[in-house]
Amino acid sequence: MGRALLYAFLLLATLFFLLPVYLVVLTALKEPAKITLDTVWRWPDPVYWESFRIAWEAFRPKFQNSLVLALTATALSALVGALNGYVLAKWPFRGSGLLFALMLFGMFIPYQSILIPLFQFVKAIGLYGTLWGLILVHVVYGIPIVTLIFKNYYSEIPDELVEAARIDGAGFFAIFRHVILPLSVPAFVVVAIWQFTQIWNEFLFAVTLTRPESQPITVALAQLAGGEAVKWNLPMAGAILAALPTLLVYVFLGRYFLRGLLAGSVKG
């Protein structure tokens, strides 16, 4: 009985979560004139696929910007975080603990509070309004959480592996490349999912630090829903298109996410 009640609760929670998604899909498949409060839950008849074509035409340049932004910033964040975690876990130095604590402190600073100085800094180095300026911001802002993930993961790798490689004559980068990196796939998967999702869905940095030609898809989605008379099928179709990349990331890598989080958490 207890398990049956638990499954019933989980089923109701799932339905409650999926109702907005169902409503988004219904609205995206309706003609603008047929979107009313009286027919909001009715299946469209006929199905109006034109919404996705119009939304894609408006989205395509911004979609490409988001792909370049998310993939580049995620790759750079993972590389920087892996090196930071490697140094802090396997090559500790005097003050490394304090440095790590100060780095983690950056996770708790609301980015709204540093938006103005961040804008001034990006403008001072000549990257304001460019995609590379936004990439730099996301890489720097992701350093604390990415470093934390890699440091915790590398701390569970036996030090004897590193020592054996040093005895064989391997240096700092050789050990990282030939010993640490091959064992880092679960950590990289976790970082890739986390960073890609955060960067793809981020809006405030995107709307503040870019010009129209370099804006990502989240800004385009907000503009698509703007105006006095909104054709609600277009923002809903755009929202589905914007959600597809992160959905695909979770479909193909989601099974490795929890495995990567737990990898190395128990020695032996």
Task: Describe the overall structure.
This protein is mostly helical. The protein has two domains: 1-48, no CATH class; 58-266, MetI-like fold (Orthogonal Bundle). It is 72% helix and 0% strand. The protein contains eleven helices and no strands. It has helices spanning 2-28, 50-90, 96-105, 115-124, 131-155, 159-167, 172-180, 185-201, 204-209, 217-224, 233-262. Helix 1 runs antiparallel to helix 11 (233-262), helix 6 (159-167) packs across helix 7 and helix 8 runs antiparallel to helix 11 (233-262). The radius of gyration is 23 Å and the shape is globular. The model has no long low-confidence stretch (mean pLDDT 87).
Helix content: over 70%
Which overall shape is indicated by the principal axes computed on the Cα atoms?
globular
Q: How much is the average pLDDT? A: 87
Instruction: Write down how many β-strands occur, each being a DSSP E stretch of 2 or more residues.
Output: 0
Structural class: mainly alpha
- Spans of at least 5 consecutive residues whose pLDDT stays below 50 are none
Q: Based on the structure given, which CATH architecture of the largest domain is correct?
A: Orthogonal Bundle
Radius of gyration: 23 Å
Count the helices. How many?
Answer: 11
Class of the largest domain in CATH? Mainly Alpha
Q: Biggest sheet, open or closed, and with what strands and sense?
A: none
CATH superfamily label of the largest domain = MetI-like
Count of individual domains: 2
Order of helices and strands: HHHHHHHHHHH
Keywords: Membrane, Transmembrane, Transmembrane helix, Transport
InterPro entries: MetI-like (IPR000515), MetI-like_sf (IPR035906)
Family: Belongs to the binding-protein-dependent transport system permease family.
Protein name: Glucose ABC transporter membrane protein /mannose ABC transporter membrane protein
